[in-house]
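Translate sequence into structure tokens.
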Amino acid sequence: MASASKPPTPMMQQYHEAKEAAGDALLLFRMGDFYELFFEDAKTAAAMLGLSLTSRDKGENPVPMAGFPHHQLDQYLAKIIAAGRRAAVCEQVEDPRQAKGIVRREVTRVVSRGTVTDDALLDPAENNFLLAVAPGEPCGLAWIDVSTGRFEAGVCDPFCLPDEVARLEPAELLTSDDAAPLPAACSEKRMVTGRPGWAFGVDAAYDALRKQFGVQTLDGFGFTEDDAPAVRAAGAVIDYLNETQPGLLANVDRVTPYRVGQSLEIDAASRRSLEITQTLRDGRREGSLWAVIDRTVTSAGARLLGDWLANPLTDPRRIEARLEAVDELVGDESLTKAIREQLRGVYDTQRLLSRVVSGRASPRDLSFVGRTLALLPKLKAKLTGRTSARLGQLESRIDLCGELRDRLDGALADDCPLTSREGGFIRTEYSEELDQLRELMKGGKRWMAEYQAKAVAESGIPNIKVGFNKVFGYYLEVTHAHRDKVPAEFIRKQTLKNAERYITPELKEYEEKVLTAQERAFDLEHELFVELRGVVADAAKRLQATAAALAEIDVLAGLADLARSSGYVRPTIVDEPVLDITAGRHPVLDVLEPAGTFVPNDIAVSSQSEESAILLITGPNMAGKSTYIRQAALLQLLAQIGSFVPAERATVGVADRIFARVGASDDLAGGRSTFMVEMTETARILNTATRRSLVILDEIGRGTSTYDGLSLAWAVVEHLHNEVGCRTLFATHYHELTELADELPRAGNLNVAVKEWEGTVVFLHRIVAGAADKSYGIHVAELAGVPRGVNRRAEEILADLEGGRRRVDAPQNGAPRPSGAYQMKLFETVDHPLLEAIRSADLEQTTPLEALQLVAAWQRQLEGEAAKAKPR
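Result follows.
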């Protein structure tokens, strides 16, 4: 704070008022050509942004200060947001030339991860959602991408909240200060902004939404009384944006209800395991399914493809509509190439319009809208008359906006600046007044020539000259020889050796015009720009509909290009829960591995099958079990977004959910071990999977002791077979589980083929019928670099165990032998003297006391054997 003995200056008083409005956000205070930060904000910014920390006052209580040039605002905003902080931008909102006293300043926007709209701060290929969570059971969700105006709201079970957060991947979360903290899975590595509890009130929410959309009721949007939690969340979003960046709401004209079940559900753990949008290793998009199938050529198309992957369809008719469109494009290569070539010139109209309607668009933004409109006639013509119903619908949604296109083309220069104040972007002949001002700015050579000719004619002086200097401005120069012919309206201003210089009222009037022409030209050009921006804003709804159509066309054309170039086939979509694939390939590895090296495999699993509702897959590590089951899930997902799939043939039954329990991980922050995480995810599957679901499981039970894990895995398979009845691919190292194929009528065995040759093992990566007889774990250890001596000793121990011996012989070098090593055969008969005694006991003729005595004798016998086996 300022020194008590020295009151703040008017500017610093203005700063304190702005800081109070900014709250916890870093206040960027515009002072001339710089943004300045003061006090604690300055200290924070200096460390965070690498700025020099100075001070405003050098007296007893210096004020810490840091700053940067105004043209570097986007650069520093990006750093502030990346650090998880908010920034309040305080601008000069008054023309300094017209200000009386200090220039008025106001906080014009508070920028956070969920409210950015500038291209420099956004990933062009990803949505940037601001998500509000209204507490309760059920809880309400509302999410908005202010860069495009997309706004949705729905209701979900609190248990499913982490799954919804994983689906949306929001940049920022709004939560109630009055509610319990969000689960760690929701808030980890995300910006969480607390809001007062009243911001989630139902009455305030309805009022805010009705006011925003100018309606009396939300019924017209499809909301019912049951959607009250969703409305509360949506109201909190509106309240937050009104407080931080009210201009952004001009692009929001509707909120769409989201219904659970209208898309294929994939929980958070399954999304991670399948690496749909980001990899497990580093969380990057590169290497994910999204990255390898993305052939879009526009930013909006890339975002829409990501949205399709996050929300695959469950309606067979909509899936078939997309497939039909892709099929037509696959069959017409020249059409697809022509469409994609036109789309390459399309700008991100969705995000451009957000800046237009919020009043933050630049002349360059408007020129990009105009350039996009100029491409539409050819693109629309290419789509006219298509046989696919979906392509026909998309063609009809392309609004050429001919009048707007002509106006923008006639008004804007080919190369427009980033700010209207730079000037020079309005074309000649668009505004007669602007043309005149520009002519004056250039010195008005033609006017001066005409005025000089007029002066010569009227005065009869043949050598009158019109000139200019910084002292006198414009003047008429007459030689002394013609001094007597000078007209009375000439006013003498300067005497030279051989001539006199004069001014006239007409010349001074023109001089005034010239001197003010530049300022007026800049002002007029800005006025014309604001007018153009308003015209584009008036057409925003039409343009947004067109932009959405272009994005979908881009996705469909990209999927067609992918299918043609990579040998994908159109899947047959059926209602029965079946996944029947011939020579299927993993869509990611098919691209990342060297060409021709990936081994295709068939997949045949069906809930209605007599022998393949559950497939138990055994085989060694590194042979491809995990790849195979992931491949099945990804092909299911691809088919349900309306994509062709990498296979020779595919029949796919629509699934309601995909569950993937693959890999091992712990949750240290939540205090959960690897095995606890595994069991939690398994419980989720067993409790929520339906007959229409697709479940892939890998190594269930490996995180605990052998008998515990095997027993759990066995029971899980039985439950999925007997109680759920869904399609299941179960990869395991527990060979004992293969016996289930004999006990469960709809279970079958598959294994990964292995070839042994001259003491080496070759993994063929081919999935074949039947159970594996070995795990080849020692061979894998050898490949991993485990010392040769360890591997040799492991082979000796394995030979003992596989020979049925309960004890393991000591190594030849005399090292102590492991104690209590047993062959692990849970479901095979073990020979032991006690077994015969138990079988021969006549329980019907044995009294309770005699039975107790028998059990005690057996216990003593077992204890004696254990004592003998104990190492000394």
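Note: Residues 505-538 form the longest helix (34 residues).
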